[in-house]
Specification:
It is a single chain. By secondary structure, the protein is of the alpha+beta class. It has six helices and five strands, in the order αβαββαβααβα. Helix 2 packs parallel to helix 4. The chain has a five-stranded mixed beta sheet. It is globular and about 40 Å long. 39% of the residues lie in helices and 14% in strands.
């Protein structure tokens, strides 16, 4: 902990220089039974996860119960995005590097509630598993 006002200012400037300001949103990447496995062929799963973690706040989750949409990525809104009405956006079949770059670009722009969902990512969007079942059953 800084002991003088000058040290406190220097610590604040160092934090700002590292980009520790507010995070636009977070990404959850499914990696379990189907997502991130050999069941989804032709995808460098490790490279996708590494690319996302290098560019945006990301965490890896166990099965998100949407195996028919593997690889699944959920973009969660920031506090500002949620206050503006943003809700988590589920993206499925994110199986090529271009789609991964589109996710990164949207997250950097602010994500749900802050930046509109790009038309290209709208093609990947699907309702969460429980919500999807409720819609299919007319609830």
């Amino acid at each position: 902990m800084p002991e003088t006002p000058t040290e406190a200012t220097e610590a604040t400037q160092a934090t700002a220089a590292r980009g520790a300001g507010p995070v636009p949103c977070r990404v959850v990447v499914c990696r379990d039974c189907c997502c991130g496995s050999a069941k989804v062929t032709g995808v460098d799963h490790a490279a996708q996860t590494a690319r996302l973690s290098a560019e945006v706040p990301m965490r890896v989750s166990d099965c998100l119960d949407a195996c028919d949409q593997a690889n699944v990525i959920v973009v969660q809104p920031s506090a500002a995005g949620r206050a503006a009405g943003g809700r988590p956006v589920w993206l499925g079949l994110v199986n090529d590097p271009e789609a991964t770059e589109d996710v990164i670009g949207w997250v950097r722009a602010g994500g749900p509630g802050v930046a509109p969902l790009p038309a290209i990512l709208d093609l990947y969007a699907f309702p969460p598993p429980r919500l999807g079942a409720a819609i299919r059953n007319g609830r």
